[in-house]
Amino acid sequence: MVDTYSLGIQNSEIQNALKAGSTAISRLVDINTFRKMEFIDAVNMRTTENIDVHMFCQDDELAPLFEIGEGTTGAYSRPTQYEKVIHLTKYRCGVEITDESKIRLDRAVQLTNSIKSASKTFAWNRDLEILRTFLTSYGVSATAGAKWNTSAADPAGDLGNLIDAAFTKDIAKISEDDINNMVVYYPAKLYSQIRQPAKLFEASQANVLVTRSQVNTTDFQWAGDNFGITWVGSQKLNYVGKTVCVIKSDETADHYTYSGSEVPEVEQGRDAREGTDYWINTRYFGTMVYPNSKNQKNNNDRIMVLNTVCDPLTMGNQ
Which of the four pLDDT bands, split at 50, 70 and 90, describes residue 4? Predict the structure, then answer.
């Protein structure tokens, strides 16, 4: 063991207390957090100095246009705005290191492992927060014709029906180019069903395999090359049995993290009775979905949900 170690960007020697400042623990946590988030690719990552994030939107997205004759003028309009607010949620993860670890000279190992554990915890909860927002803020939904792990499955057809439904929405003004920038999040337990080539079965006997197609419209590479669609398996979706499709754009969603100086990200203290040094890591974060309109503040048609693609797992499967 060693009595000097590096934490983030600060060096610390075994003394009465570790010099574990915000720039050390928080930076290390964030680096590991981003690498472990499944839904990070579908939102814009932003910071805020406020715990309440206010978004001001134009009531009418398109400016009024008038066809007029020469030498005349059109009517003026006064634009109106509406506001949407989200309240960032507070999350904490605490670490305790005992005095005995000083004697064994393994406190550095304990603290490093604790930080890694905190990173996974923050990543899991930040990802869950984004997913929960998607599952409550979608504007388009459909139901799979058959579960994707059955012989009658048609993932490509189901996805096509979902996209077709999105094109019927006038408010979102989705174009074909938007579809070329879409992420499809599916339950990870369906990985083999989506990866394998399409199967053709005997019409009279559903379980008799006739042939296996060489080109599958649901294959990751094929879908990416032809439609620009990115497929991402999510273990979290195993527990809801749904597929979430998100068009990546500046009009979809932002994920905010509080970065102000009023509340320290990392605080250090000591419990003399227990004989422990402790660190508390605090974060505030939340996801803002861009509203469809003044009357649909909490929904966005660029977020789509396909229901019943598989049976959801229960928490007992963990």
Answer: very low
Nearest residue to 239 via CA among 124, 306, 316, 162: 316
Among the listed residues 36, 32, 42, the one whose alpha carbon sits nearest the alpha carbon of residue 185: 42
Q: Which token pair is 78? A: 């006064």
Closest by Cα among 132, 162, 128, 153 to 305: 162
Q: Where do the structural domains in the chain lie, given as residue ranges?
A: 4-59+82-135+253-289, 138-251+296-317
Domain 4-59+82-135+253-289: CATH architecture, name and number where available? 2-Layer Sandwich (3.30)
The overall pTM is greater than 0.90? no
Per the model's pLDDT, the better-predicted residue between 52 and 30 turns out to be: 52
Comparing 23 with 118, the larger pLDDT belongs to 118
- Output the pLDDT for position 74: 78
Spatial separation of the C-alpha atoms in residues 93 and 261, rounded to whole Å: 19
| Cα separation of the two ends of the chain | 35
- Alpha-carbon gap, residue 128 to 1, rounded angstroms: 38
| CATH code of the domain occupying 138-251+296-317 | 3.30.2320.10
